């Protein structure tokens, strides 16, 4: 699909005074139509002051002469019969210099094209660099999700994709780290409740029951070595333990009697019993008793120590196995205590104790591992600030290690693209220097042809060639840069009409467009013309229209050099704004078909809000293409467009009056009194609404009467009466307006102008 060609100014954003963010994207040639007060001057002023304009890449307002013809231009440049500043241009007598300037201008245009091409190419390389960076950012972000979530505190200030990638690129030495160990240090460093924990105590390296006195007696029977007849008797009955226990139990309270039969014991009975247990036997019995006491004391102390370790445990330490081992140890010790007690009771029995030494060694190993974790925690807590920094650095080092291949690829691409961009920029800089040099040479050439009289000669020649006879200009004697207006009879004009004043100002503006403000540099032009034919008669309007059509063709040469009707392309963009329908039609002749380089705009203003509408539509011959349409078919059609858009009653009444006057009085030949009779008398029933049980409603009748009263009224709607706008809704006026057409059998015309299909 064909699109509009952008020129120097790519976009205009309108925010003042009645516009609200309207955006215009102009092409080379731009026609704006709108009634007075709609906002045309606002657009002209925005362009002239470089307000909210987006320029072509590499360009700015400084690269052009922005020439605005409006009332401010007239006031600034036409005083005391035309105090015109000198216009520097190429004179006809300086043909050789003109050729040189033309050649230098062509060279400068070539350098400018080179500069723009090279700058665009360098920009493309920078875009590729940005794309490469974007690819790296996406890779960094997608490949590190788990690590980023795990070490969230380390990501502070880097949680946006671009900041994260920048941080990765800034890591000096990527390195792989054990994430499990790193996570432990990280959790402690960033845990506000983290504190120092006491180390687990060991049970004592020398505390093993195998080294206690009496342990060796557990696995052998303790018997007496006595050979007395009573001893032999006890051994034969295997009653040694029973006799010893009974003697120990009852000897203190026997009082010389047998505890069982109460008979008096034989003489020497105690000595004979004692003789059954020799010294070694007694020593063994004592050793077993000592072993029992020591074992109980030592193992209780061991269990107390190991249990005490569980009173305040680091949360990250898993003590499940440790608890299981203690429980097993406790059970084994309890069994051993029971077995030792049995040995003490029956010394002749053989007892095998549970192995607790191995359990203690295993528990000691667990304690060593737990203490390593506690020490690691305590080290971090004791130096928390440094450990925070260290853990964060290690996280980023590990991330950079993970992404090292992506970073290496990115850096290689950046080096390559940067080198290419630098080379293109260097060439572009050289082209810009050549452009500036050519500009300087043109300025030097132009200094040779500066001539204030050239402006007057050019204006007078134009007036003569166009057949204008109203006046001519000449330089005031002995007064440089002051010009007199000479009437046709040779007299000096005493007073200029507003139209004459505007006409002279426009001719001077035209010479500025063809020349330059100063001799220092001749720049390409951006031309803005705001309502140039105000107060001009038909003769001057014709001349101005012809000049503007010429300027339009100069601008059009920038887009198509084939079949040129005028020479030159120094106008790079032109904006023409008007409220004059006839003038608009004159200057837009044969422009609608130039869709790519010409745009039409309609400026509306309703309820003190201005809007700009681009006038294009779907092509009837090719639905996939767009085409221009001229919003100004004629002034009458424009009135209907305003009628449809208006919501405010006062301006709406004025438009209604103008439509009724033009159509019914001028075109149809009615007279005002005839219309009132035909509408209000012959069709009264259309305007009076019956009300059941009440008086008829005459509101429509009164509105129609008011509208018809304004027709042919020389005062229009300014009749001296006070009017309250909110009294009647605009849609009510529009409804009654339609009834007037229906009453005069003109509904077909109404539907046509409103775009209503029959």
Task: Give the tags.
758 residues, alpha/beta, Rossmann fold, 3-stranded antiparallel sheet, 13 strands, 9% strand
Structure description:
The chain is of the alpha/beta class. Among the domains are: 9-89 and 498-632, Rossmann fold; 226-277, no CATH class; 638-754, no CATH class. Helix content is 53%, strand content 9%. It has 25 helices and 13 strands. It has a six-stranded mixed sheet, sandwiched between helices. A three-stranded antiparallel sheet has the order 2-1-4, with helices on one face. A two-stranded antiparallel sheet has the order 6-7. The model is unreliable at 80-95 and 716-726 (pLDDT under 50).
| Strands, total number | 13
Helix content range: 40-55%
Low-pLDDT residue intervals, each spanning 5 or more residues: 80-95, 716-726
The Cα radius of gyration reads 56 Å
Shape: elongated
Strand-pairing-aware structural class: alpha/beta
State which percent range the strand residues make up. Answer: 5-15%
CATH uppermost class of the domain at 9-89 and 498-632 = Alpha Beta
> How is the largest sheet built, in terms of strand order?
5-8-9-3-10-11
- Report the end-to-end length measured between terminal Cα atoms: 33 Å
Q: If you average the pLDDT, what whole number results?
A: 81
CATH architecture of the domain at 9-89 and 498-632: 3-Layer(aba) Sandwich
* CATH fold-type name of the domain at 9-89 and 498-632: Rossmann fold
Largest sheet: 6 strands, mixed
Discrete helix count:
25
